[in-house]
Amino acid sequence: MFVLHADADAFFASVEQRDDPRLRGRPVIVGGGVVLAASYEAKAFGIRTAMGGRQARRLCPDAVVVRPRFSAYTEASRAMFAVFEDTSPVVEGLSIDEAFLDVRGMERIAGTPAQIAVRLRAAVRERVGLAVTVGVARTKFLAKVASGVAKPDGLLVVPPDCELAFLHPLPVECVWGVGPATARRLQAWHVRTVGELAALSESTLVAMLGQASGRHLHALARNRDFRRVEPGRRRGSIGSQRALGRGRHSPAAVDATLVGIVDRIARRLRAAGRIGRTVVLRPSSARRAPTRCRSPPRTRRRSSSRRARSSRPRPR
Ligand SMILES: [Mg+2]
After folding, report:
1. How confident is the model over 96-149, as pLDDT tens digits?
2. Between 27 and which of 42, 79, 255, 305 could a Cys-Cys bridge form, CB atoms 3.0 to 4.6 Å apart?
3. CATH number belonging to domain 13-70
4. Does domain 168-221 have CATH number 1.10.150.20?
5. DSSP secondary-structure letter at 175?
6. pTM for the full predicted model
7. Residues, Cβ < 5 Å to ion ligand 1
8. Strands 28-30 and 3-8
9. Is 41 assigned a catalytic role?
10. What is the homologous superfamily of the domain 3-10+74-160 according to CATH?
């Protein structure tokens, strides 16, 4: 099996640069209050997605700040997915600008996975006017890692006999499920690379990180990932998180952070053209505050037992 992971580079910012030639080659920030996207020229100044607008302008006073144009992004996404679907019959969208493509069994009609990837990149460039980076590997996990390494405007094929040689020198943060908190915990155990993670036994990792996370990381560090590319599947949820840091926080400060998170999620929903019903609030702290989950009753009639079930906190 060979999987392509195709991911547009700095998607929103690239659409802005595509549509306004004056923005090309310049640091561009999409969104004023919170950075929704930054062009590679802006990223070179240390500007990152979800950073506060003021901090971003301090890092790069010359950056051009543009208002997001979600309809343009949705349109570009549609055009890009049309190219994906012309490339392979099995496309799984991950977000507005990212998808997995299953290309196994296509050798005779379309060439090797690498040839398919080269053509895919050229077609997106020609038909949509955007740069898309493609990672090619035997597993979804590794294909996504490869595209992350190859960014921007790159193509990286990981041959089956080079998988662990490629994966093991990379930082643990490239593994799905390793966020800043897990990375810090692993670092305390002197685990910085995927290879160092792979050297630990599953039971050690489970003791360190809990059952689900320990097993998950143990498998991925060895490139064990049996998930198939599932066409038509869309992301089940859209979320956002924010680290508050140590110390006490006033209710007003927590409230302001929450409002910021809600704002970001609402923008992502609009960008993806999605609506949602259930809100999950998952505080993550040393004291493990409980996760809250609320769904408003559906507008159509539903059995009350179902409603009761959906408003119960989800087990962690
Ligand atoms: Mg992207």
Report:
1. 999 999 998 888 888 999 999 999 999 999 999 999 999 999 999 999 999 999
2. 42
3. 3.40.1170.60
4. yes
5. S
6. 0.74
7. 7-8, 11, 97
8. unpaired
9. no
10. Reverse transcriptase/Diguanylate cyclase domain (3.30.70.270)
- CA quadruple 192, 193, 199, 200: dihedral positive or negative? positive
CA-CA distance, 132 to 11, in Å (whole number)?
9
Distance between CA 151 and CA 39 in Å, rounded? 12
From the number of C-beta atoms within 10 Å of its C-beta (0-12, 13-18, 19+), residue 32 rates as: middle
231 burial via Cβ count (<10 Å: 0-12, 13-18, 19+): middle
- Which single residue is written with the structure tokens 């040689």? 165
User: What is the per-residue pLDDT across 281-309, written as a single tens digit (0 to 9) for each?
Assistant: 877 665 556 667 777 666 554 444 444 44
217: CA distance to ligand 1 center in Å? Answer: 23
Question: Given 16, 41, 92, 98, which residue is catalytic?
Answer: 98
- Neighbouring CB atoms inside 10 A of 141's CB total 22
Q: What is the whole-number distance in angstroms between the Cα of residue 31 and the centre of ligand 1?
A: 16
Number of Cα atoms under 13 Å in the Cβ half of residue 27: 17
How far is the centre of ligand 1, averaged over its atoms, from the C-alpha of 98 (Å)?
A: 6
Centre of ligand 1 to C-alpha 130, Å, is 11
Task: Tell me the CA–centroid distance for residue 274 and ligand 1, in Å.
Answer: 18
